């Protein structure tokens, strides 16, 4: 217990655009082990009745031999894992996603690990104090297999902007 009357107050936030290093890869930890409940809830919440996600008997008869984790859950989790470290309180908006691929399936019980490479940062031409930031997200399973990749463009505050 601190003996100080007013100890420092530290609030968790992401990084401002000018704190990001182009070429740096930020590893987001801990990983996330995906459960059957995650997959069923996400698939039904998003009105996706794909049998590959929900029907164990059907999925056993496919080339995969088992149910697959919904790829949109995989993408959302990969991006979501980056928030606390990179964009919490510093993001203005997502501007777009591109080059989304799922080169290897994610299975129930797999642990998903995420990382983000900062590929570009430039001041916004129309919004002073903000910057356009390009990110490359990668998700891997516990074996190191890449299960998701996505390029993402965001608008973020710079440190002298209003989000401090």
Written account of the structure:
The protein has 164 residues and is of the alpha+beta class. It has one domain: Thiol Ester Dehydrase, Chain A (Roll), CATH 3.10.129. It is 21% helix and 34% strand. The chain is built from five helices and five strands, in the order βαααααββββ. Strands 1-3-4-5-2 form a five-stranded antiparallel β-sheet. A hairpin with a 6-residue loop joins strand 3 and strand 4. It is elongated and about 55 Å long. The mean pLDDT is 94. It comes from Brachybacterium fresconis. This is Acyl dehydratase. InterPro entries: HotDog_dom_sf (IPR029069), MaoC-like_dom (IPR002539), MCH/BMMD (IPR052342). Belongs to the enoyl-CoA hydratase/isomerase family. Pfam families: MaoC_dehydratas.
Show the helix and strand layout.
Blueprint: E1 25-33, H1 36-45, H2 51-54, H3 56-60, H4 71-80, H5 83-87, E2 91-101, E3 111-123, E4 130-140, E5 146-157
Antiparallel strand pairs: 1-3, 2-5, 3-4, 4-5
CATH class: Alpha Beta
Order of helices and strands: EHHHHHEEEE
Task: Report the sheet-strand fraction.
Answer: 25-35%
Query: How far is the first residue's CA from the last residue's CA?
Result: 29 Å
Question: Unreliable segments (pLDDT under 50, ≥5 consecutive)?
Answer: none
What is the CATH topology? Thiol Ester Dehydrase, Chain A
Task: Give me the count of strands.
Answer: 5
The radius of gyration over CA amounts to: 19 Å
Family: Belongs to the enoyl-CoA hydratase/isomerase family.
Pfam families: MaoC_dehydratas
Protein name: Acyl dehydratase
Domain MaoC-like: 22-128
